[in-house]
Design goal:
- This protein is mainly α.
- The chain has one domain.
- The chain is globular and about 45 Å long.
- The mean pLDDT is 85.
């Protein structure tokens, strides 16, 4: 992990982590569907919420293990913003994905 204590770095890590995890979950879901092992076992809402759980590990790592409060607060702020946006736009936005 990169060890920097900046708010902006926390914002970037907080945005990139869910995007990467969402992509991994989406590809895994498609691969399992193509080989016939499973149906689409995760819907869109579940993909989005599971992708946000990656930030929990980052928050713990930067707050507890390293003691970098600024980076941890940046990740925490982005995570709260994503969750608020998810629940505010859930019914409107997810019907078009």
């Amino acid at each position: 992990m990169i060890k920097k204590d900046f708010y902006f770095f926390g914002f970037v890590m907080g945005v990139l982590s869910p995007v990467v995890i969402f992509g991994i979950l989406w590809i895994l879901n498609l691969m399992l569907f193509k080989i016939g092992v499973a149906k689409f076992y995760l819907d869109k809402e579940t993909h989005i919420l599971l992708s946000l759980t990656g930030n929990l590990a980052l928050i713990r790592y930067y707050f507890v293990n390293l003691g970098y409060d600024k980076t941890g607060r940046g990740i925490l702020l982005i995570t709260f913003a994503f969750i608020l946006l998810f629940f505010a736009l859930k019914d409107y936005f997810l019907q078009y994905i």
